[in-house]
Design goal:
Layout (H helix, E strand, L loop, with lengths): L1 E2 L6 E2 L17 H5 L9 H7 L4 E6 L8 E3 L7 H13 L5 E7 L10 E3 L5 E7 L13 H11 L7 E3 L4 H15 L1 H10 L6 H7 L10 E7 L1 H8 L11 H8 L10 E6 L3 H9 L2 H4 L2 E3 L2 H5 L5 H7 L3 E6 L2 E3 L4 E2 L15 H10 L4 E5 L3 E4 L2 E4 L1 E2 L14 E4 L2 E4 L5 H10 L6 H10 L18 H10 L15 H14 L7 H9 L8 H6 L7 H17 L12
Parallel strand pairs: 3-5, 5-7, 8-9, 8-12, 9-10, 10-11, 12-15, 13-18, 15-19
Antiparallel strand pairs: 1-2, 4-6, 13-14, 16-17, 19-20
Length: about 550
């Protein structure tokens, strides 16, 4: 029950979510209590079971499609809901479907199209508001190395699913380099510890350019998939019937086909603009469809199996235990960071499809409030992916192939790709639990898993480590601020306060960063609090200025 302060009205509104903006609602008691833990593929079922009686959605209109509307960025759940609602309507229930046309929403042809008569109510005065966007964030050394390792697991002629975020951008950048700058790509791989994974890469991945190309099958049609299509990496087309797909798999040329199947899309402003500007025929290569088609095999299973050759489902985890369970959506106290989404769907699918693999990527360590801790841990009270679905895990230090391995082999493989600061404690914990033999010793080649070694690789090959590999909506000033604010966040621990105070005292003069201070409304500080904020920001800007010009790609 919400109370409106101005009118003193009381509204019967309660928001229930099965996925949240990552980390955005950790402090909201209402959001935490009203979270529904559900696989993405079960969301329509669970929403319908709650007695849904109104579906409201932005839609797109196009002069080339009279009498038709496109669900555009979100056919994901709506297409699965409509048959369920039709059954309830047939039993006499009143359920309304409302559409509102948005002028800037790209019209996506194909499965996401509906006739205007599918809507009971249509607001046809176009909405011209700015579409919600998620700007590309900077990609650091850890993420770039994760992307490089993961890129070696992608099989030419196969299927790719990737998620949003800096690690997805890093994988995209690595695949672009593998295709168009293979010499330098191979040079970086020579500096990495690939020997233990060479057999896996030779058998199920690759490091050469893509001769056949990839097909994208991803619940989220991310900006990276569009970039890969524009670069010719995504060019394996799939077809709408099993017979045509089988012929295509044999190497026959079949007209038409989709390069990507997606359930929803979200991304930077330029991503929407490129889709909007694209001729309809080209836009039709990116088929937006029901989440049930993408995230599950049941229903059209023979067709999906024919399409999803050598699938690689790449998803991000927050932590992985030494027995192979993954934590991707909850903290140890049960607080929900985001949600299960489709991760479990894709991991399970990787085990059900022939020649498919699940690849979970994570940074081996994290820093929060000045304190550093390992993301590879002995155990965790929550899990998103159970240990019996363990498969491939990638950190900035290498690749761990866990499928079909014993507990001792799994623990050793994960310790090998952990940061060296935490390896001794992890070994002790595994030995105390009887999961590693008492005479276990770490292979010396994994004893230098440290950031200094990785930074040396980055310095030697800066072209493969751009800060914004897919471009950026941020201005140069804003990119400086993103770096500075991240630095400040990392200094908030009590042990860092002395260093932070010294940095503030030694901060440069405000005249050196007038645009930055103006952007943060700290050009003319009012009072001691704002003066302190100004000094801290100036110190952070000075500490994070790049020593050399940044590599930056504009798209």
């Amino acid at each position: 029950m919400l109370t409106c302060a101005r009118t003193h009205c009381r509204l019967n509104v309660r928001v229930e979510q099965f996925f949240m903006q990552p980390g955005g609602l950790l402090g909201s008691a209402s959001a935490q209590q009203n979270y529904v833990s559900s696989n993405y593929s079960h969301a329509a079922r669970d929403i319908n079971a709650q007695g849904l009686n109104l579906v409201a959605q932005l839609v797109a209109q196009h002069p080339e499609r009279p009498g038709r509307l496109s669900l555009s960025c979100n056919p994901d759940i709506t297409l699965d809901l409509l048959p369920m609602l039709a059954k309830r309507r047939a039993q006499g229930e009143t359920i309304l479907v409302l559409g509102q046309i948005h002028e800037h929403l790209p019209y996506m042809p194909g499965p996401s199209e509906l006739g205007e008569d599918a809507f009971d109510l249509l607001i046809d005065e176009p909405d011209r508001s700015t579409l919600f966007s998620t700007p590309n964030m900077p990609v650091g050394t850890q993420d770039h190395l994760i992307g490089l390792y993961a890129s070696t697991l992608i099989r030419d002629g196969g299927t790719l699913q990737i998620g949003i975020g800096s690690m997805g951008d890093a994988l995209t950048a690595a695949l672009l380099a593998r295709q168009a700058n293979n010499g330098e790509y191979q040079a970086v791989l020579d500096l990495l510890q690939l020997d233990p994974a060479q057999a896996l890469i030779a058998r199920q991945g690759g490091t050469g350019p893509f001769a056949q190309g990839l097909y994208g099958c991803s619940e989220m049609f991310v900006n990276g998939l569009l970039v890969l299509a524009e670069a010719g990496v995504l060019r394996r087309r799939v077809h709408a019937d099993e017979a045509s797909q089988v012929r295509a798999n044999r190497g026959e040329t079949i007209a038409g086909g989709a390069l990507v199947h997606g359930g929803f899309f979200l991304g930077p402003r330029r991503f929407y603009e490129r889709l909007h500007e694209m001729p309809m025929a080209l836009r039709g290569q990116f088929e937006m469809t029901a989440i049930s088609f993408i995230n599950e095999l049941y229903g059209d299973e023979a067709l999906k199996r024919a399409q999803r050759q050598h699938a690689r489902f790449v998803n991000t985890a927050m932590k992985v235990t030494l027995l192979g369970a993954a934590v991707s959506d909850q903290l140890d106290n049960g607080a929900v960071v985001s949600g299960v989404g489709g991760q479990y769907n894709f991991v399970a699918q990787a085990h059900a499809l022939e020649d498919a693999r699940s690849v979970l990527v994570l940074r081996s360590w994290r820093e929060h409030g000045g304190a550093v801790s390992s993301n590879i841990v002995w155990d965790h009270p929550q899990c998103t992916i159970p240990r019996h679905l363990r498969d491939i895990v990638v950190t900035e230090y290498g690749i761990a192939d866990l499928r079909g391995k014993t507990d001792a082999q799994v623990a050793e493989a994960l310790i090998n790709i952990a940061d060296s600061r935490f390896q001794p404690a992890l070994i002790d914990q595994a030995q105390m639990a009887g999961k590693l033999p008492r005479d276990f010793r770490l292979d010396p080649c994994y004893a230098e898993n440290n950031l200094e070694r990785l930074e040396a690789i980055r310095t030697a090959h800066p072209q493969l480590f751009p800060e914004y590999p897919l471009g950026s909506d941020f201005s140069a000033t804003e990119r400086d601020l993103v770096r500075a604010l991240a630095w400040l966040e990392g200094k908030s621990h009590l042990t860092e306060l002395l260093e932070l105070g010294k940095a503030a005292l030694d901060a440069p003069q405000p005249e050196l960063f007038p645009e930055h201070l103006a952007r943060m409304q700290l050009g003319s500080p009012q009072g001691l609090r704002e003066e302190l904020h100004q000094r801290l920001l100036l110190a952070a800007l000075q500490a994070t200025q790049p020593a050399e010009p940044l590599v930056f790609l504009t798209r």
